[in-house]
Amino acid sequence: METIEITAVIFDLDGVIADTSEYHYLSWQRLADEEGLPFDRQVNERLRGKSRRASLDIILGGHTVDDEQAAAWLERKNDYFMQIFRDHATECLLPGVVPLIQELRLAGIKVGVGSASRNARWILQQLGIAELLDAIIDGLDVEHSKPAPDVFLHVADQMGVAAAHCVVLEDAAAGIEAALAAGMWVIGLGPGQRVGHAHARFDSLEGVTPAAIIAALAGASRRTPTPNPQPPTPQPPTPQPPTPHAGTLAGRWAS
Ligand code: B16
Ligand code: MG
Fold first, then answer.
1. pLDDT at 230 over 80
2. For labelling, which of 74, 81, 145, 210 has a CA lying 20 to 30 Å from the CA of 116?
3. Contact 114, 168 (CB under 8 A)
């Protein structure tokens, strides 16, 4: 018998907690139109889970711009994004997210967020769920963005949980690669052609319970997480609030 023991769940933000991809698309499209850069929804799909600068490089498709120009474009694109988000914040909280976080917390499972977005803390505050989380690591905290494992390793580190006891919920191919490289369990959210390399897959988090997560991992794969190949970049220690009780979600299946 093999056992899956999960003591922490790490949520990606964009596409998992908040449906912001359309807002990112509209913001990039506006910048691209203004600057005469070729851009469409197909290119936008390749930006999912990628950092702000990596996204611009994909849009430029091999063309280069100097750092000053790139920084100005990225700031303008982010201003467009923040304007749209402010007007539509409450509409983009995805169904099932808050009930799942609440159930996990009741079970004593730690809950964190690992996002490539440099806006992650601001978005979580705007959505009113930042205080439900034990740790938030975002694009400002790590040098190497997804698909590097750093963002998820730092979340686990802040929560004091071993990578093998974490499950990541991700909508992007790059994020799934990051979670696998971190040696964590990962559930993909979305179509199989995008997230089929995860251990298991849901269409969305609507109606998903902690028990369903364990059942999906146990039922969908007998692969065990690979050992973490790279240690995270050293970070200053973060004071940890005491945890009243620690919980474990456990599942077993015959090997
Ligand atoms: P920002 P995630 C990612 O967030 C998005 O998936 C990606 O599409 C976006 O380009 C990236 O954040 C950067 O966002 O411009 O806000 O820094 O999915 O890792 O939560
Ligand atoms: Mg995402």
1. no
2. 210
3. yes
